[in-house]
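Board notes (copied after class):
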Amino acid sequence: MKPRCVLAIGCCVGGLLSAGGCVLPDELSQMQKDVADVQQQLHRVERNQSELESQLGRAQPAPAEVAQSLAPADLADIELRLDNVSRQMEIGAERMRDIEQRLDLYSQDLQQIRKLARVGFLPSPTASRATPPGTESLSPTPPPVRAETFPDPEQLYNMAYADFSKGNYALAISGFREYQQRFPDSALADNALYWIAECDFSQGDYRSAVDALDDLLDEYPKSDKAPAANLKKALAFQEQNQIGQAIIQYRYVVSAFPDTDESRLARDKLTGLGTSPN
């Protein structure tokens, strides 16, 4: 995930804001904030990566001598930081994919609004029909029907996503679950299940994370979140010290999604576990 990709998406969000006027200000403003958050996250990842490279590059000619010169505690710290960098990159990539999907949906909505604006809104035939004189009392206007109000899908999703970004995981899980249950056929329903799993994972509830990921893969087998969901399952198994299960899951990611970032991360994890991808 390159910073210039983040900037490009940021420009797209800005374009939608200027083109859409007051159509969806809250949703688009939240998306613009999400892009800025991810950009900051990637900058932090780059700084961490640079620090680690400078640490490891002090004795570049002989890697074995580097390992010997570092104390065990230093090696453990570097390994932990590398894992953290890898995880931050993974989360950043997923958040950008999510933002891209939301941008596509907003672009479609904006095109539809422009189309309606061009043709204009036609009044209802009954509204323009004249009432014959003296018949007003014979056909009284029916009382307005009170419709049941439902939350707007985009607003509900964005509120849950905002809670996730702020670390309000319980609220985020509730919002994403409501979204997926109310709108199971929407384009972001599979994303909602993925972010529920991410909330559980971030809280250390790895068993619940695996359950949410299984729900995603069962209900949306063709989801574009499938590579990330399978990789996250492997990470959850590893966090629970179920190394054998984690290895099987990492190998599945490598074989099922060979040309993806998830596959490359799975290979790195298998190498770190001292085993092969096959």
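Comment from the instructor: The first helix runs from residue 3 to 20. DSSP finds twelve helices and no strands in the chain.
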